[in-house]
Each structure stands twice: as structure tokens, then as C-alpha cells.
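[Protein data]
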Amino acid sequence: MKKAIFLDRDGIINVDYAYVHKKENFEFVEGIFETLKYFLSLDYLLLMVTNQSGIGRGYYSEDDFEKLTSWMLDEFTCKGIKITKIYHCPHSPQEMCKCRKPEIGMFESAKKEFDIDMQNSWMIGDKPSDIEAGNNAGIPNTIFVNTDTCQEASYSVKSILDTISIIKG
């Protein structure tokens, strides 16, 4: 079984400007490249799990999301970072799907596809629903990255760089 770091996108990978779908509006969070390189050095798979309700709400298309994702992955590749896979939920909250966090559909897909050891994996998110999803998926190690704290998270930190002092492999 493999261990993984599950990462939310908006607010963790990039600054959350709400419904980011163009590279002109995409700004990487300070420290994300160093942090992800560190996780890779510990042999974690990097898996992104992101709610993209802007698709379901009609704010942007699946094609817009795919174009931005391709560009983002190229930027990571240029920095020597391999994101194993990106899972996304395109549904609006009203659709009551099984993949929108805090539901666990994306996590179940990743677990099955990559034989993930959930007990030795981590969920990193900036919203309580990210932490709730990790907990619901059987991931006991959760980190909430925000200026607030989250009681349901194992750890609450203010910066993605702070996760390096927590995750030791």
C-alpha cells in the first residue's frame, strides 16, 4: 500500500480568489513548491481533491478547468514536482453528489486506483469541509491551513510551509 498527501486546490495550492479558472487569475501559494518537493522526498504520492462547483454553477466549463489544470501541472513539472493525479467534483452543492467534499467519492476513487494506505496518509485543506472529508474517508492525519483553527483537524497551521514541521514520513 502507498501513502499519500491529499491536497485541496483553492487555498492550498493557489490563492483562493473564488472560482479561479484562468491562469491569469491563478497565483501559487507562497511555499507550495518547497513543501511539495519535501513531501515527494518522503515518498508520498501527491493527490489533489478539489470541489469545482463553478462548473456546475455555469461560471466556467469543464474544458476551462482542464486547460488550467494542464497549465498548473506543467508549472509543477518545471519545478520537478509530480502530482500523481487530480480528482475534481464539478457538481454544485444542490446536486447532492457523492464526490463533493465532505463526501468521500474522490478519496474512494484514489484509494482504489492507487492502493492508498489511508491510515498513513494526510489530508491538507483550508476549509472545515476538507478536514471533514478526510476524517470521513478514514484519514486520521489532517492539517487545516488557515488563519482560523479547526477543532476537527489534527493540526491547525497558518501556512503551507508549516506542514513540513508536522509531516515527517
Summary: The CA atoms of residues 6 and 105 lie 13 Å apart. The chain has five helices and six strands. The mean pLDDT is 97.
